[in-house]
Amino acid sequence: MMSDVARTTGVRATVRDVAAETGLSIATVSRVLNGQANVAPHTRDLVLQAVARHGDRAPRRRGEAPGGSIYVRCPYVLTDYFGLIVSSIAETIELHGRQLVLGAGEALQRKPVLAGLSERPDIAGAILILPPELPEELVRLRDQQFPFVVIDPRTTPPKDVVTVSAAHFAGSRRLMTHLVELGHRRIGIISGPPEWLANDARLAGYTAPLAEAGVLPTPELLRSVPEPNTEQGYRAACELLDLAQRPTALVAFNDKMAVGALQAAAERGLRVPEDLSVAGFDDIEISRATRPMLTTVRQPLEEMGRMAVALLMRILERHTLEALHVSLGTELIIRGSTGPALPRP
Fold first, then answer.
1. Which spans in the chain are helix H?
2. Pick the CATH number of 168-299 from 3.10.310.10, 3.40.50.2300, 3.40.50.80, 3.30.420.150
3. Contact 228, 256 (CB under 8 A)
């Protein structure tokens, strides 16, 4: 059992205390806390349950420091989308008196970063933006008792992993409802990478209002892209607009892809919104630079960054989190790129 000193005085328990309570060796407990793979699942669960029971007196994992820096990982170039998130994270971290260690850029997608985080004594916790790692790697980091928060998880988050995202389903549903109310029924959807969690939620939101209007989704009007950028949006829009019966509206996974759709429409002499309505998602700066300006769904990007820092600080202070998956509200922004559907011949 746990030592009387640790139990009565609040002194932090040691690895030796956890080993004594579980009947395991100190080496085995250390392997679990450091996330090493050569541990049986039931043994790992036994140690983690003991650690959870000790709460504030649990042994501090290697690399955890009360005043350490916060590592922020963004496996993309800091454009107007990711830049807004990272900037708000940096400002909020500074308010908490912490330092930010930034890892950004697409080259980071192929670099094994998570495995070494718990080994760094200067890092107290991390914020991971759209992490490309498999869920198993996030589970391993969680089992190391390393504090981290995920912004906009790429896949379904593992149990007990804290996440912050936007209400993708609600936002896309409201956008599609807007188009249906304008009389659109033949609507082309340019979706993002099929394996992304946000893409699944947005597709579900798009198809719900159409189904309510009696329109069944058809593969002919759906295009998926490997990367949600302007070039991919342009290519997908070209395919949709060259159909024998072209759509009366296009909705894109994000604003950049919607800009590509506007380019494809202009090349074909289509007026927006008279001949074709176009809508995006995110409400980044480029959505207000087009002519006409884009109808889109505003994501609270800066608030997502602030919320992630707030949750991480609560974890570092060993507070109990009741809400592990926070979804922030979105807002439909109606501008000039959407209008009534043309009457059918």
1. 4-9, 15-22, 26-33, 41-54, 80-95, 114-117, 135-143, 168-181, 197-212, 230-241, 255-267, 301-316
2. 3.40.50.2300
3. yes
pLDDT for 6? 38
Cα–Cα dist 96/88, whole Å: 13
- Report phi then psi at 125, rounded to 5: -170, 180
**CA 307/CA 312 separation, integer angstroms:** 9
Measure CA of the first residue to CA of the last residue in the chain; give whole Å. Answer: 81
CATH number of the structural domain 4-57: 1.10.260.40
Backbone φ and ψ of 279, nearest 5°: -140, 155
- Residues 71-91: pLDDT tens digits? 999 988 888 899 999 999 999
For 2, half-sphere exposure in the C-beta direction (CA atoms, 13 angstrom radius) is 20
- Tokens representing residue 252 in the block: 């894109």
Residue extent(s) of CATH 3.40.50.2300 domains in the chain: 69-167+301-330, 168-299
The answer to whether 174 and 297 have CB atoms below 8 angstroms apart is: yes
The per-residue pLDDT for 77 is 85
Indicate where the chain has its CATH 1.10.260.40 domain(s).
4-57
User: How far apart, in Å, are the Cα atoms of 187 and each of 7, 115, 237, 330, 339?
Assistant: 64, 44, 11, 22, 13
Instruction: State how far the Cα of 219 lies from the Cα of 242, in Å rounded to an integer.
Output: 15
Q: Which CATH superfamily is domain 69-167+301-330 in?
A: Response regulator (3.40.50.2300)
Q: How many helices (H) and strands (E) does the chain have?
A: 12, 12
